[in-house]
Amino acid sequence: MPASPGAAALHGFILALGLILPLGVQNVFIFQQGALQRSFRKALPAVLTAAVCDTLLIGLAVTGMSLAVLNNGWLETLLMAAGSIFLLYMGISLWRRQPNSAFGEAAVYSGRRQIAFAASVSLLNPHAILDTIGVIGGASLQYAGTNRLAFALSCIVVSWVWFAALALTGRLAGRWDHSGRLTRLLNKASAVIVAAIGLGLLYTAVSRLF
User: Fold this and answer.
1) What is the DSSP letter of 43?
2) Residue 144: which of 12, 1, 8 has the closest Cα?
């Protein structure tokens, strides 16, 4: 029996939620800005940029870009290698960052810097690209027409709601931080997570070459 739009939307919801829940670079940055900005509104540039980038990637994935990436091993390896270097650099920068106050001024980005950073960790992060293009794009191939649209829209809604909720959660956590400990912990934890992902990608990229 052909799938209904409702079934396709449910599939997209479950798949997108499973991909976005793990603690990755995007999530760490959005939570961090939610915690360190003085209000949720000031963290919106990061939230909106990450959501728009995810929307763009999902749109490209369900319209056929997934086939181009999945069928080109060199392109996939190149994405991993370039992304690993970027992530390692970012991890080192986060580890060295020292906040000057309980609000972590060194990590509180302006609106423009939030947009630039959120876009970079969304569009230059091979994990995000391969998850979206490979998994979501691959899964969308079983649908067509209205069903594929329902699948894509469901994935997009998950991204928008998740990033907003993550920043709000970070904001609530940030209100409890009066000593700067949360800021230091976030910087160190972010650095370890980002560097670990970068090393993993570098290992995978090198393994593909030999």
Assistant:
1) G
2) 8
- Tell me the three-class secondary structure of 57-76, residue by residue: HHHHHHHHHHHHHHCCHHHH
Residue type, 191: A
Structure tokens at 190: 């972010």
Cα separation of 43 and 46, whole Å? 6
In this prediction, residue 2 carries a pLDDT of: 55
Structure tokens at 145: 């027409």
- Phi, psi values for residue 196, rounded to 5°: -65, -40
Chain centroid to CA 206: 23
Give the max Cα distance, the chain.
61
Instruction: Give the Cα separation of 201 and 79 in Å (integer).
Output: 9
What pTM does this model have? 0.73
Query: Where on the phi/psi map is residue 24: left (φ > 0), alpha (ψ -120 to 50), or beta?
Result: beta
- In sequence order, the 6+-apart residues with CB closer than 8 A to the CB of 20 are 27, 158, 159, 162
Which carries the bigger pLDDT value, residue 78 or residue 121?
A: 121
Whether residue 101 has pLDDT greater than 60:
no
Q: Which two tokens stand for residue 167?
A: 């920043």
